[in-house]
Amino acid sequence: MNVLELSEQEIGRRQSLLELRAMGIDPYPAAEFPTNAYSTDIKAQFKEGEQREVVIAGRMMGRRVMGKASFAEIQDSKGRIQVYITRDDICPGEDKDLYNKVFKKLLDIGDFIGVKGFVFKTQMGEISVHAKEITLLSKSLKPLPVVKYKDGEAYDKFEDPEQRYRQRYVDLVVNDGVKDTFLKRATVLRTMRRFFDEAGYTEVETPTLQSIPGGASARPFITHFNALNIDMYMRIATELYLKRLIVGGFEGVYEIGKNFRNEGMDRFHNPEFTCMELYVQYKDYNWMMSFTEQLLEKICTEVNGKPEVQMGDKTISFKAPFRRLPILDAIKEKTGFDLAGKSEEEIRHIAVDELKLEGIDESFGKGKLIDEIFGEFCEGTFIQPTFITDYPVEMSPLTKMHRSKPGLTERFELMVNGKELANAYSELNDPIDQEERFLDQMHLADKGDDEAMIIDRDFLRALQYGMPPTSGIGIGIDRLVMLMTGKEYIQEVLLFPQMKPEPKIPQSSVKEWAELGVAESWVYVLRKAGFNLISDIKDEKAQGLQQKLGEINKKYKLGYEKPSVDEIQQWIERAKEK
């Protein structure tokens, strides 16, 4: 990287790096630095009169130099603690450079340091570490945004969402509470796994690259498998592989993993998302509703200490039991229209002419029409956990027919805070019925539905060997974490959400500048002066441009031979010809 591409602070830090090395100090030592305490534990375990020896390490997040004594603030993986540093303690001999030069001048905010010393309480009552030794562990070359706190209020915040999500590593360092969200996410996953393991179910892994995108209605990502010379799909669901394992004799299997759907991005959707799917033999969707209530109440209690969570001004309770409401009853309740027994054309008429739904076209089958009506008029109204049950067969190609309600299936979706959190079935295990439903999906694909399922012949073959009565559920982990942490945006619970490509300043290439006669070294000087494109110099005066470039050459001590006014005039003339 050319030095002129760096900021003033970055240049200063790199100069400090060179000076440290010249002093024989390795700014990136390889040796282990064995710590024995964390900031939070030191404070919690402090005892008056006990001089506890500790070894800590972390980022230096603040520094107050007061002559021969100073205070620094160290941030480790659990919190922050103050360190008291005196010149004569860390430099007991004649050489005082470690304090006078290294600590005071060559260390920067963001550097990692190690501290050996003892715990004490300052006159102001703050539990601190009195340093006897300090060690540079890693030099930071880019300055951190400095968030200042006064009376509990933050100033100079690093709060632009695009910057925060793109540079999550900075967000985690400087913004309080961000790491806590992801620690809670870990608690959600840990509690879920423990709950399933204690029930006797087995965690498994299934292929991410699949020859057929099955188990859901969604648009897949497509890639190419060079070794086999075939197109493959990133999985949209784990369902069909997990059911194969039930056929193979597992009592219950679950997988927590990534799914990929080549669809939109918004506050509730990321194309790459984490989903849990569970399948248990000899169960039905009624059992699964009760099991899900217990699971979510347990998770909420583990994460928040109680079975309730605050979402904005709403308190959501995961205390079992949850309300259970058939989908057609929900539509009737919210719109006044009873869709039971209605044909596809009748439902289309209600959707388009009565409810004035937009975006409905001829490719929409009965199931998708009902789904659109429910999504527009019902879904967002269910704030407290509600099981929406008994979906029409057209909406549920992998679900067992309802045992007592013709035309419906034994399926539920769990709605919380106006969004779907879980989807579950009494699984279809009749291979002949399953094949017919796959064929119906193919007819929808022929009509133009690009989310219709493709027939998975191997899955049908597995069903023909016999699958026991089974219930299955899928839970969106990202949405679950949003609920458990009170976050309104999915990006807040993803460490690295998908982002648009980072915008770049348009720049003419070194080769393009060379065509004007500009040497490569002066290209960077021109860019530092604000001339990124060849066209930027067309209206410049040669003498004025020479002066601007000369000032940068002098300021950064580059020592370049300054181009003459005539040479610069030639650059300008050639730029005008481009």
From TrEMBL:
Its EC number is 6.1.1.6. It is found in: Cytoplasm. Signal peptide: none annotated. It catalyses: tRNA(Lys) + L-lysine + ATP = L-lysyl-tRNA(Lys) + AMP + diphosphate. Keywords: Aminoacyl-tRNA synthetase, ATP-binding, Cytoplasm, Ligase, Magnesium, Metal-binding, Nucleotide-binding, Protein biosynthesis. Its cofactor is Mg(2+). Residues 188-501 form the Aminoacyl-transfer RNA synthetases class-II family profile domain. It is an enzyme of class 6 (ligase). It comes from the Bacteria. Mg(2+) 1 binds at E413, E420. Pfam families: DUF4332, tRNA-synt_2, tRNA_anti-codon. Mg(2+) 2 binds at E420. One of its GO terms (cellular component) is cytosol. GO terms for biological process: lysyl-tRNA aminoacylation. HAMAP family: Lys_tRNA_synth_class2 (MF_00252). Homodimer. Belongs to the class-II aminoacyl-tRNA synthetase family. This is Lysine--tRNA ligase. It comes from Prevotella multiformis DSM 16608. The lineage of its organism: Bacteria, Pseudomonadati, Bacteroidota, Bacteroidia, Bacteroidales. The gene is lysS.
